[in-house]
């Protein structure tokens, strides 16, 4: 029996699932019910699972440990955060540049790829994200470096993010203050921009057409998937609501109540 290549059936199958993390796998420090089981079920069926967060305020190691504390064993190579993405972007596009990082505890990602981190306005690049220890002094260094012509890189532009008891201001709030005061626009590493997805493609050779993006935010997760030709599922445990998905201009392929419903999407796609 011959193997059919590129048949309609092959096209419908989902070989890869990329999970957003905040609002999908966990909210704040709490795991979503059924997250561990859903990931396990997918892996059992041979689906490649990746984790992709716009959060750039921690390292990949931190996110891998957090996943592990929720019972999800993810190798470092399957965990993507935007501090790692920004470091890879700088290494590829700005060889020899120094960086001032307006994020917490993420310099390791940069030094790991050979970038020297500095703490003054002579930096060649300013990397801005969610810095919960932001001070006016730090903002001033970043502002002056940008006025001197440093590259302006934002790990992400999220306006807010979900926590146990509601929402908090996101990296976008800090990025906006620098964009406003310097009249400059940043290069954005995180979703909905395609850079992080391209990095997964480059490092793992996944096919976008055979991939499903699962996220809680229409303007980041789902918009990126739509722009990049991926299927998408909006999960209603985070930022965006069903009403927004139905009436808005960004329409996901699936709207699901919980991460628990993801294995069924993959199984149904295989049956078609
Ligand atoms: Mg999210």
Quick description:
This protein has 272 residues and is of the alpha/beta class. 38% of the residues lie in helices and 19% in strands.
Write up this protein.
The protein has 272 residues and is an alpha/beta fold. It has 2 domains: 8-54 and 192-271, Rossmann fold; 83-188, Rossmann fold. The chain has 11 helices and 15 strands. A 6-stranded parallel β-sheet has the order 5-4-1-13-14-15, sandwiched between helices. It is globular, with a radius of gyration of 19 Å. The chain starts with 7 loop residues before the first helix and ends with a helix. Residues 20, 22-24, 215-217, 238 line the site of magnesium ion.
The overall strand count is 15
Q: Radius of gyration from the CA trace?
A: 19 Å
Ends apart, CA distance between termini: 21 Å
Low-confidence spans: pLDDT under 50, at least 5 residues? 1-10
Structural class, judged by helices and strands? alpha/beta
CATH architecture identity of the largest domain? 3-Layer(aba) Sandwich
How would the global form be characterised? Answer: globular
Tell me the series of helices and strands, N- to C-terminal. HEEEHEHEHEHEEHEEEHEHEHEHEH
Largest sheet: 6 strands, parallel
CATH class of the largest domain: Alpha Beta
User: Strand sequence of the main sheet, in spatial order?
Assistant: 5-4-1-13-14-15
CATH superfamily of the largest domain: HAD superfamily/HAD-like
State the helix count.
Answer: 11
Mean pLDDT: 93
The figure for the number of domains is 2
């Amino acid at each position: 029996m011959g193997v059919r290549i590129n048949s309609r059936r092959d096209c419908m199958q989902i070989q890869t699932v990329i999970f957003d993390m905040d609002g999908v796998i966990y909210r704040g420090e709490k795991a979503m019910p059924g997250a561990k089981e859903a990931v396990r079920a997918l892996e059992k069926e041979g689906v490649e699972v990746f984790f992709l967060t716009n959060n750039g305020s921690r390292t990949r190691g931190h996110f891998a440990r957090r996943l592990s504390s929720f019972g999800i064993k993810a190798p470092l190579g399957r965990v993507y955060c935007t501090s790692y993405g920004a470091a890879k972007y700088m290494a590829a596009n700005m060889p020899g540049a120094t960086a001032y990082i307006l994020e917490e505890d993420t310099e390791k990602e940069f030094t790991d790829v050979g970038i020297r981190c500095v703490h003054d306005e002579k930096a060649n690049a300013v990397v801005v994200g969610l810095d919960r220890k932001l001070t006016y002094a730090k903002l001033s260094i970043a502002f002056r470096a940008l006025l001197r012509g440093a590259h302006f890189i934002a790990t992400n532009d999220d306006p807010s993010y979900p926590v146990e008891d509601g929402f908090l201001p996101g990296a976008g709030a800090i990025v906006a203050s620098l964009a406003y005061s310097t009249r400059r626009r940043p290069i954005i590493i995180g979703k909905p921009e395609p850079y992080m997805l391209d990095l997964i493609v480059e490092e793992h050779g996944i096919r976008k057409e055979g991939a499903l993006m699962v996220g809680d935010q229409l303007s980041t997760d789902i918009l990126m998937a739509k722009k990049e030709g991926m299927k998408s599922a909006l999960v209603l445990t985070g930022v965006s609501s069903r009403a927004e998905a139905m009436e808005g201009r960004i329409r996901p392929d699936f709207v699901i109540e919980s991460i628990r419903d993801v294995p069924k999407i993959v199984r149904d796609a295989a049956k078609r």
